[in-house]
Amino acid sequence: MKMKIVISGLLLSLLLSGVLVFSQEKASKTEKVIIKTSAVCQQCKDRLEKHIAFEKGVRAVSLDLETKELTVEFRTGKNTKEGLKKAVTKVGYDADELEADPKAYEKLPACCKKDAPPH
């Protein structure tokens, strides 16, 4: 009888701790940031959205080609605006005041360069 009570107590405590962890994860705060980029075409959009989506804590990412603004929703404990801006530069694009990483920029297709004609 005592063994059943101990086992029941352990199971109950495990269940409650799992519920608490789950509710804390759901309560994680998200933040939305807008980063001005040097993207110029659909390939840029596809490339940025693909790469930034895999950054730690990113929930959603979308690039508006008209405004060249990248909107990123992320978990605040997992990433920062500065971290996301650095990630954009590593893909080869400017991010607000940060210049694109020169090596990554050189690897971009000609249509994705800053001086590319509109298309």
Task: Return the CATH class of the domain at 30-112.
Answer: Alpha Beta
How helical, in percent, are the residues? Answer: 40-55%
Instruction: Provide the succession of SSEs.
Output: HEHEEHH
Bulk shape: elongated
Please summarize the sheet with the most strands.
3 strands, antiparallel
Q: What fraction of residues sit in β-strands? A: 15-25%
Count the beta strands: 3
Radius of gyration: 22 Å
Overall mean confidence score, pLDDT: 85
Going by CATH, the architecture of the domain at 30-112 would be: 2-Layer Sandwich
* Unreliable sequence segments: none
CATH-defined fold name of the domain at 30-112 = Alpha-Beta Plaits
Task: Characterize the structure shown.
By secondary structure, the chain is α+β, with helices and mostly antiparallel strands. The protein has a domain at 30-112: 2-Layer Sandwich (Alpha-Beta Plaits), CATH 3.30.70. 45% of the residues lie in helices and 18% in strands. It contains four helices and three strands; from the N terminus they run H-E-H-E-E-H-H. A three-stranded antiparallel β-sheet has the order 1-3-2, with helices on one face. Strand 2 and strand 3 form a beta hairpin. The longest helix has 25 residues, at 2-26. It is elongated.
SSE map:
Elements: H1 2-26, E1 30-36, H2 42-53, E2 58-64, E3 69-75, H3 81-91, H4 102-107
